[in-house]
Amino acid sequence: MVARERRDGRGGRVPRFDRRVVVVLVAIVAASVVGHLVVYPHLPEVVPTHWNAAGVVDQRSPKALSLVLDLLPIPMAGLFWLVPRIDPNGGNFEDFWGFYQGFVVVLTVFVCALSWMVDLAALGVLPHEGSGFVGIAVPLGVGLLFVWIGNYLPRVRQNYTMGVKTPWALADPENWRRTQRFGGKCFVVMGVGLIVFGFVASALSDEAAAAGIVAIALIPMAAMYLYSYLTWRKAGGR
Fold first, then answer.
1. What is the pTM of this model?
2. Does 166 score more than 60 pLDDT?
3. Residue 122: which of 192, 173, 207, 60 has the closest Cα?
4. CA dihedral 92, 97, 103, 109 (to 10 degrees)
5. pLDDT in tens, 91-122
6. How far, CA to CA in Å, does 124 sit from each of 44, 47, 129, 194, 224?
7. Residue range 134-139: average pLDDT?
8. Which among 177, 142, 145 is positioned nearest to 163, based on CA atoms?
9. Which of 89, 103, 112, 185 is 20–30 Å from 65 (CA)?
10. Cα torsion 174, 180, 183, 184: sign
11. CA–CA distance, 24 with 164 (Å, rounded to integer)
């Protein structure tokens, strides 16, 4: 059974995070942050902070900048807790609360993993920067995340935070339902596109890689908005 807390702006009750989820999140974030603080004194003064599409380091920064990414999971976790409580349709989260909690855990783990790429690369633990490991691992991780989201997106009910939030979908429950179903397929396409991109990016020029990322992201997004708009027009929208 889903625990509930306060009412949202429309009188619905906002669910409460399962204690086990809270314990897992606190453990993950605490372990990551403490680990970073232990490793920090051993980092060189300048660390890798950006990789190009081929997985080669193309930007380095003072190691103090890495602390921003190291500590990011803390405010992010707070934001995840706050979102359902400030969303006008926060009560609708109850219908997809299991997915939302899973999303919070998965994204937190993903961000923590990204934060360790800087430290491990700086310490020479990651494969050589010319191996393309980062160029494959990051698109693969993001792509799998998108595929997972796409499979659950049709279960998301109207809200102002998660899902494909077009003006027409927010105004009409049926448009929302249809848009999320179509959007779920688009997210899967984006995810598969990113996975494929990760394996071919090293053979592309920087310009071609940038164009590929833009196409993978913008074409499905434009398709989602167009679908939602056409659904609204078909339903008699003016």
1. 0.84
2. yes
3. 60
4. 140
5. 899 999 999 999 999 999 999 998 898 898 88
6. 11, 11, 9, 27, 42
7. 85
8. 177
9. 103
10. negative
11. 28
Instruction: Encode pLDDT of 51-99 as tens digits.
Output: 877 777 888 889 888 888 889 988 998 899 999 999 998 889 999 999 9
Q: Which residues of 131-147 are buried (b: 16+ CB within 10 A; e: fewer)?
A: ebbbbbbbbbbbbbbbb
Query: Which residues make Cβ contacts (< 8 Å) with residue 9, sequence separation at least 6?
Result: 88, 89, 90
Q: Determine how many CB atoms are found less than 10 A away from the CB of residue 44.
A: 12
Tokens standing for 188? 């899967």
3-state secondary structure the chain: CCCEEEECCCCCEEECCCHHHHHHHHHHHHHHHHHHHHHHHHCCCEEEEEECCCCCEEEEEEHHHHHHHHHCHHHHHHHHHHHHHHCCCHHHHHHHHHHHHHHHHHHHHHHHHHHHHHHHHHCCCCCCHHHCHHHHHHHHHHHHHHHHHHHHHHHCCCCCCCCCCCHHHHHCHHHHHHHHHHHHHHHHHHHHHHHHHHHHHHHCCHHHHHHHHHHHHHHHHHHHHHHHHHHHHHCCCC
Q: Is 73 exposed, middle or buried (0-12, 13-18, 19+ CB in 10 A)?
A: buried
Q: What is the pLDDT of residues 197-222, one digit of tens each?
A: 988 887 888 788 889 999 999 999 99
